[in-house]
């Protein structure tokens, strides 16, 4: 009840005081809204006036329906320096979200690998961001020799190579995942995405990526990805738009199976106060 009252008060203030601040401080408003993805994500160092302006600006975002435009706009954000600022802002979510809510799926992966007769010697994280998850996985799977983090942002990759320079198992590469898989992918590899990577792929691109990975040979894939809270995979099997960014809520079980994978795990958790679901998929071929 208390959280509901706080939320109602915030929406009221952002709709009144926030709009006034946008009018009085047009340059500040322009800075806050210069990139749609950055505006949508909360910033931990924002003052109260910036938060109210942000709330007002979010309400004014135009709806975008063209999937190609959305995919291109999102790609342009993640490939440039703006992405490094957002990765820095989201750094604490490794401790507040990933560790308490997501690590269980890697414990399940350990059980799966214990039944394998073949050794998997490479783990690739697509959309590695600030590298925290990849670094964590390198300590959790000591039997794996190579941990490769791929990201579109060269600036972030450069930062990761400095930050984790002492961990010789880690390699960070600035590349498009689809291109990298075609050029460097190999069998006996575990692929991972964590909390918001595949949601920026068009459905056709994602299906192609999964099929290309399947052709590499024996592979595992763990996808930890958000879905729209109201996306029912049974009644609406195709990908849907969700969120203010917006991005894509994909039917991951369907796409993996269609690419030739079988699922060894599927579960969902409520995420972000019920507005999204966090989906966990474990697939193998």
Tell me about this structure.
The protein has 285 residues and is of the alpha/beta class. It folds into two domains: 2-61, no CATH class; 93-284, Vaccinia Virus protein VP39 (Rossmann fold). The protein is built from 13 helices and nine strands. The chain has helices at residues 2-24, 26-32, 36-40, 48-59, 67-79, 82-89, 93-101, 104-114, 132-140, 154-163, 177-184, 203-214, 252-258; strands at residues 122-126, 146-151, 170-174, 189-194, 219-228, 240-242, 247-249, 262-271, 276-284. It has a seven-stranded mixed β-sheet, sandwiched between helices. α10 links the parallel β2 and β3. The longest helix is centred in the first third of the chain and has 23 residues, at 2-24. It is globular and about 65 Å long. It starts with a helix and ends with a strand. The model has no long low-confidence stretch (mean pLDDT 88).
Features:
285 residues, Rossmann fold, seven-stranded mixed beta sheet, two-stranded antiparallel sheet, 13 helices, Methyltransf_25, Class I SAM-dependent methyltransferase
Overall residue-averaged pLDDT value: 88
Q: Fraction of residues in helices?
A: 40-55%
By CATH, the topology of the largest domain is Rossmann fold
Percent of residues in beta strands? 15-25%
What sort of overall outline do the alpha carbons produce when their principal axes are compared?
globular
Second rung of CATH, namely the architecture of the largest domain? 3-Layer(aba) Sandwich
Calculate the terminal CA-CA distance, rounded to whole Å: 47 Å
CATH class of the largest domain: Alpha Beta
Uncertain spans, ≥5 residues at pLDDT below 50? none
Q: Going across the biggest sheet, name each strand in turn.
A: 3-2-1-4-5-9-8
- Strand segment count: 9
SSE topology string: HHHHHHHHEHEHEHEHEEEHEE
């Amino acid at each position: 009840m208390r959280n509901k009252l706080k939320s109602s008060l915030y929406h009221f203030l952002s709709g009144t005081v926030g709009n006034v601040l946008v009018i009085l401080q047009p340059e500040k408003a322009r800075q806050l809204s210069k990139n749609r993805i950055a505006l949508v994500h909360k910033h931990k160092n924002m003052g109260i006036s910036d938060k109210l302006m942000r709330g007002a600006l979010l309400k004014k975002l135009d709806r975008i329906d063209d999937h190609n435009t959305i995919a291109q706009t999102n790609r342009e954000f993640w490939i440039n320096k703006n992405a490094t600022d957002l990765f820095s802002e989201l750094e604490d979510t490794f401790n507040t979200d990933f560790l308490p809510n997501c690590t269980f799926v890697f414990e399940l992966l350990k059980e799966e690998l214990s039944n394998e007769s073949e050794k998997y010697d490479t783990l690739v994280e697509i959309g590695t961001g600030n590298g925290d998850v990849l670094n964590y996985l390198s300590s959790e799977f000591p039997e794996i020799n190579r941990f490769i983090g791929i990201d579109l942002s060269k600036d972030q990759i450069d930062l990761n190579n400095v930050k984790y320079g002492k961990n010789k198992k880690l390699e960070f590469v600035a590349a498009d995942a689809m291109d990298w898989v075609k050029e460097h992918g190999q069998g006996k590899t575990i692929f991972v995405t964590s909390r918001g990577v595949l949601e920026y792929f068009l459905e056709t691109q994602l299906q192609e990526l999964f099929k290309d990975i399947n052709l590499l040979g024996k592979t595992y894939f763990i996808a930890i990805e958000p879905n729209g809270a109201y996306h029912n995979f049974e009644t609406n099997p195709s990908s849907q738009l969700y969120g203010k960014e917006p991005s894509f809520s994909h039917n991951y079980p369907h796409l993996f199976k269609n690419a030739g994978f079988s699922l060894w795990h599927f579960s969902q958790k409520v995420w972000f106060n019920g507005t999204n679901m966090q989906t966990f998929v474990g697939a193998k071929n």
